[in-house]
Design goal:
By secondary structure, the protein is mostly beta strands. Helix content is 0%, strand content 50%.
């Protein structure tokens, strides 16, 4: 996972005056339906975990856009360049998106991925079960902005639905001060498990805030509770 923060500085200082502000600090803006929405890294599997607008400094006219993204590429992301195309800005409130954009245009940006990798690998090779199948955790990583698990399923599932049940293995991050972050229903990808066969899966979720990895008490995958540093 990685996070990209953009600052939107309007030529007209009053452009965002009427934009709705919410109690959690987020701002009622939405991107238009065109464009790539999130940075794309060449020759990699990539996607968006979440995105939101907020106002870092109410004293200035600028607003910020935060995008939590994931990408998998051989050799890692450090030193790579991502490309993003953003299109139009709409107001967003209780009644949904406004009919007309408050700022029309297309913005194409190159995003250099120069960063320090803060992710920690917690486990590999551990085994658990899920839905009657054997599960091997190939890789479990945790960072300040998200959790990601790669796992292999094998066997005959007890229940099969139209949805990709293979992705519904419980994944829960518990912090030392009590609250938990449930990533069970987060997005992912992989194969459909055929009867008696094996499937490789991966899933992950970006957090809605930045955490300190040292504040994590455990990460649950299936029926395993894995403690960082244990």
């Amino acid at each position: 996972f990685y996070a990209v923060v953009y600052t939107l500085e309007p030529e007209d200082p009053a452009l965002f005056d009427g934009v709705e502000r919410f109690e959690d600090g987020k701002v009622g803006l939405a991107l238009g339906p065109e464009g790539s929405f999130f940075p794309l890294v060449s020759d990699s599997d990539s996607g968006s975990a979440s995105a939101y607008f907020y106002d870092a400094d109410p004293a200035d006219p600028a607003l910020q856009l935060v995008q939590l993204c994931w990408a998998q590429t051989e050799g890692g992301l450090a030193g790579q360049t991502a490309h993003v195309t953003l299109h139009d800005l709409y107001g967003w409130g209780d009644e949904g998106r406004s009919a007309e954009p408050i700022a029309a245009g297309t913005w194409e940006l190159d995003v250099p991925l120069e960063y320090e990798d803060t992710s920690v690998e917690l486990a590999s090779g551990l085994e658990t079960t899920f839905n009657g199948c054997n599960v091997t955790i190939d890789r479990l990583t945790l960072s300040a902005i998200g959790v990601h698990v790669e796992y292999t399923l094998s066997g005959d599932p007890l229940e099969v639905s139209r949805q990709s049940w293979e992705l519904n293995i419980p994944v829960v991050v518990t912090l030392k001060d009590g609250p938990s972050i449930d990533a069970t229903w987060s997005g992912g990808s992989g194969e459909t498990l055929e009867a008696g066969g094996t499937a490789r899966m991966n899933k992950g979720m970006g957090f809605d805030r930045i955490i300190d990895v040292e504040d994590v008490a455990s990460v649950r995958v299936g029926d395993l509770w894995i403690e960082p540093g244990a």
